[in-house]
Amino acid sequence: MTVLPKGSTIRRDAGLYGYERALKRVGLFPVAGVDEAGRGACAGPLVAAAVILDGAIEGLADSKLLTPKRRAACFDAIIASGASVSVVSIGPDECDRLGIQRANIEALRRALARLEVRPGYVLTDGFAVDGLGVPGLAMWKGDRVSAAIAAASVIAKVTRDRHMVEQHGVYPAYDFATHKGYVTPTHQAALAARGPCEIHRLSYANVQAAMEARKA
Question: Domain total for the chain?
Fold first, then answer.
């Protein structure tokens, strides 16, 4: 489904919880939001989260708009609230094998399938997820207009960031604790000097270029 069901029109001033309230009014609940983190990174996993909220979360917003401290606080609040939460990680090897677009869809699908509570409607950030057996809506910048998607974005990003900090301890030369596997000048310099490590995505152009340069 690419449009909202009849009777669930959203006002411009409805706020972050407007979609969830509107869908509940027409009997489509609980509402699950799903989002991913790490699509643009060239190292580390792709992490997807699905969330069905159980009440409002103070200070909740798109994870990219929150400070690390505020994200961590929202993460803890979501978990403590009784929300149904599922997290799935797809490693670099599988990202290379599937291609990032297919890996992204697969991660979203797996996260939704692992929710303990079956959703009545699914809101996704950017990508439609087919074959779920329930209606849903793919939303542009959904993490800024839907509370469930914003919550999923927080869970996915905090989970992935913490993992990359752990990987920094294994591969300190790449400074994963700072850039979390995304492409930065510091990361590129480390790739050029050392080549990729075991958690780099070898199908990415910048990683391939670093490997070719070291062969020359």
Answer: 1
